[in-house]
């Protein structure tokens, strides 16, 4: 039996908890080489950090593990439990969404217990977890998947931070954008997404700050046809693309 502290991966396993402050500890452990797929038969029957993140219902911890290349399809040897099956059984919709975007195997089945032979979808339906069952049936949308792409998430994150730093006019409390002719090197990203999923164009460049405008494309009757996003990036690191 190992004891806490002997393995960095074991420390990471214990660091995964419902406590929001655990994320910084996880980040440090992962940066120092902790095994994101650590499991020990003597430690909850081989449950991995990914499974534990689902168990304690910490989607942020789960996303951190996924971004660190953790195996979302690892199965517990004793009963075939996967993170997706765990999320379905516990009605963890947000965790299901993350796992589905990350390529979780929807056909994995439990190999032991009263629900042996069941998939995540069958288990969700068994417990009448309707929203989870629907997510498992439909899978992630194109837009949802795209918005989880790390460069796009970074851009949105930077925009959220920087949009509150836009200068104000001397006689107004309303934030205004600086005059166009005074902006240093700009790069514009145009990302068009049609609802049929057939057209997606993305252009990403280095950036310092971001301004954003998002509109929906509609036909003459007002029916949404898709989405359009225009991102204007500015700063010394920007290059014309």
CATH class of the largest domain: Mainly Alpha
Helix/strand structural class: alpha+beta
Query: Could you tell me the radius of gyration in angstroms?
Result: 22 Å
Oligomeric state of this protein: single chain
The number of distinct structural domains comes to 2
Strands, total number: 4
The assigned CATH architecture of the largest domain is Alpha Horseshoe
Instruction: Report the span from N to C terminus.
Output: 56 Å
The helical percent reads 25-40%
CATH names the topology of the largest domain as: Serine Threonine Protein Phosphatase 5, Tetratricopeptide repeat
Query: Beta-sheet strand percentage?
Result: 5-15%
Q: Could you list the spans in which at least 5 consecutive residues all have pLDDT below 50?
A: 154-241
What's the main sheet like?
A: 4 strands, antiparallel
The arrangement of helices and strands along the chain is HHHHHHHHHHEEEE
Provide the residue-averaged pLDDT: 70
Number of helices: 10
Main sheet: strand order = 2-1-4-3
Keywords: ANK repeat, Repeat
GO molecular function: ubiquitin-protein transferase activity
Organism: Haptolina brevifila
Domain Ubiquitin-like: 187-235
